[in-house]
Amino acid sequence: xxxxxxxxxxxxxxxxxxxxxxxxxxGLRDAxxxxxxxxxxxxxxxxxxxxxxxxxxxxxxxxxxxTxxxxxxxxxxxxAxxGxxxxxxxxxxxxxxxxxxxxxxxxxxxxxxxxxxxAxxGxxxxGxxxxxxxxxxMDAGPDLxxxxxxxxxxxxxxxxxxxxxxxxxxLDIFINDINETFAQAGVWWEIESIRTQPALDEAAYxxxxxxxxxGVEPLNRNIDRTQMLAPAGFDVFVVRRTARLxxxxxxVCNAGGPGRGAVYVPLRTGGGAPQxxxxxxxxxxxxxxxxxxxxxxxxxxxxxxSGTCAHAILTRRDLAPGQITRIRQQVMAGRPAICGSLVTGx
Length: 346
Fold this sequence. Notes:
The chain has two domains: 1-96, no CATH class; 144-333, Collagenase (Catalytic Domain) (3-Layer(aba) Sandwich). It is 18% helix and 11% strand. By secondary structure, it is an alpha/beta fold.
């Protein structure tokens, strides 16, 4: 049944008869009889005493509020009809609904139990991530962080002086190579700090080289071990070149005493060219507990293959599963490998 949009909220009658209805039909309406619309049910026992106001025009602004229209097809308007939309039940105008409490706003739900935690209905678990062992086969990315302190040696003796030629860009090249390789083991190397420290005994170094001395001792005499991060991390001491001492880099397992090993690496080769980043990475392999494998073609592309082996590939960087396990053990220990603990990992 259509509504009059300009009405004051009461219902406009939708007469079932056309505007030119016969006098007989009008008489039926005046007598209080139901309109001749068979489609509109009428309860004679309930509504027979309510006379329709036939004189009221269809667009009247007021209507008999006590006589709801018999058109069940009309949409229900809670704001105007205020009754339940059940056409089978007559509207009780005396109590259309409890307007004072359309719903219980004080308790729309049980606030004491908004969800059943036992039924896994609560918020997602924000706890720490699963510390499952690293699966290199899944390429999960680094999940362990190793802290390393970089020590730049400053000296007037050219071989020892790294501080004079150091650049952040050059260091990035070395660290990036280390991280790309150690990603196989799920390890990320993080620079804890970069420190410049003077050589302790340049004259002793010069004398040793003049005498043909090789090995790590000429460097040991110029290293200030009081600034080492180990055993709370790893240390890399950087000089300009080590070729005159007979090596391209070395890991000294007891540089600062038991449990305080350190890596010694150069920025330049003997001929003055930039050192290969892989050499630094190889020495970090020693610091994390790896030894050289046998000089076997099977290991030609392995990171830890010695450069003295004829089969060694220049760009070697592979890690075997056993090597990955050993690296992770050492990184989780948070310190460099102690003397006698290095393994081949095969």
